[in-house]
Amino acid sequence: MARKIQAIRGMNDILPDQSSVWLYLEKTVADVVKSYGYQQIRFPIVENTDLFKRGVGETTDIVEKEMYTFNDRNGESLTLRPEGTASCVRAADQAGLLFNQTQRLWYTGPMFRYERPQKGRYRQFHQIGVESFGMSSADIDAELIILSARLWQKLGLLEHVELQLNTIGLASERETYKAALVDYLTQFKDQLDEDSQRRLGTNPLRILDSKDESTQAVLKDAPNLEDFIGEESQADFDFLQAILKANGIPFVINRRLVRGLDYYGKTVFEWVTTHLGSQATVCAGGRYDGLVEQLGGKSTPAVGFAMGIERLVLLLETLSLIPVEAKFSTDVFVISMGDDAGLASFVLAERLREENAHLVVLRHCGGGNFKNQMKKADRSEARFTIILGQDEVDQGVCQIKDMSTGEQETRPIDDVAAYINTKL
Ligand code: ATP
Ligand code: MG
């Protein structure tokens, strides 16, 4: 036998018993974002490597060690997108959708990061991203957060996630803070973990995120970012909080929240859960007013967030929050004996689908004897089985078996669709 080829480590197949949960989640998201006036945008999975280097930032974890980068046949460096924001900006700007206008956009699809695979962390994973452009006031930050809260509410997740908020100020404020932080931390360099020592020279803000105990101990007396936040950033942050309060959305302020991507400024936020171990963040985002310009466009304010579909699916499963309607099930199984009945069953199955688009109608293919076909009907767990033989065709009727009660009755073929509609 030929050797079987396996999937790439950290890249999962979504099998039929899981895909219905994905469809349910994607449909719920699509409905919610639409109700806020967001339109979908689609862009390629592969982009020029420079887009992510410039967009996400050279010293971020993503660019430093997580990208799938390769040369194409022309020797051009391409990268499988590790996130969607940079591509979304590239696409929207390229199409002239950004300058002097507002946009509310969303996207969904696979992202690729070379990380150590574990529960809730994969090398191909999927995000749904929501981005807004052209609005500088913090009310759009609030809208995005409220939109995400509505989504959690629809999914039954609201009480299982916590909103963490912070403001990381303007770029100039962060620069002053970074200098103060580096000055302070340099005195204790030996006590920092290896990653943090390296970040001292590259991305010092990320040190605040370190899980290392010794680093955390040093950080206790470090300068606080909030002391460096200017009036404008603070006013925006206060405004955002006031809107959230008015809408009854609880939040906690996490002064250590800085986010791992370079492009954020002012508002940053995460929705975290205690149900997924260390992969706790299901949704993360913030304001990134500098990114469009950094990527060569005209300065455009922007805010957005992305959520991880795998983590949300895990959360829904862990909490048993998948509604029965979301699960795939067969409503009607159609079997037939003989050539005439075979043809008639096709026509009948089409009619059922035509008259009730929600029905799942499975017509048995490939013939076989009555007993075998009935076994398949049983296994399908359909609510009804429709049986057609030559006698039924001659009389213009069919047998309908209610699989939950075992009761079987004869009905005119013309009435079947209407009858099933009253039952399902
Ligand atoms: P983390 O801190 O967990 O590494 P991140 O800050 O790298 O997350 P973002 O780039 O902000 O994550 O992506 C937004 C969301 O996408 C995350 O909150 C998470 O839900 C999801 N996500 C990120 N990386 C992965 C991954 N490797 N596998 C599965 N989901 C992921
Ligand atoms: Mg990460």
TL;DR?
By secondary structure, the chain is an alpha+beta fold. Helices cover 40% and strands 20% of the residues. Helix 1 (16-35) packs antiparallel against helix 5, helix 5 (138-155) packs parallel to helix 9 and helix 12 crosses helix 15.
Features:
BirA Bifunctional Protein, domain 2, single chain, Rossmann fold, aa-tRNA-synth_II/BPL/LPL, 16 strands, alpha+beta, eight-stranded mixed beta sheet, 424 residues, Anticodon-bd, binds adenosine-5'-triphosphate, 2 domains, binds magnesium ion
Describe, in plain words, how this protein is organized in 3D.
The protein is α+β, with helices and mostly antiparallel strands and 424 residues long. It is built from 15 helices and 16 strands. The strands form three sheets. An eight-stranded mixed sheet has the order 1-5-6-11-10-9-7-8. α1 (16-35) runs antiparallel to α5 and α2 crosses α4. The longest helix is centred in the first third of the chain and has 20 residues, at 16-35. The site of magnesium ion (MG) has 2 residues, from loops. L-histidine binds at residues 83-85, 113, 127, 131, 259, 263-264. It is found in: Cytoplasm.
Supply the number of helical segments: 15
CATH architecture of the largest domain: 2-Layer Sandwich
**Overall outline:** elongated
The CATH homologous superfamily of the largest domain is named Bira Bifunctional Protein, Domain 2
GO biological process, one term: histidyl-tRNA aminoacylation
Keywords: Aminoacyl-tRNA synthetase, ATP-binding, Cytoplasm, Ligase, Nucleotide-binding, Protein biosynthesis
Domain Aminoacyl-transfer RNA synthetases class-II family profile: 1-316
Main location: cytoplasm
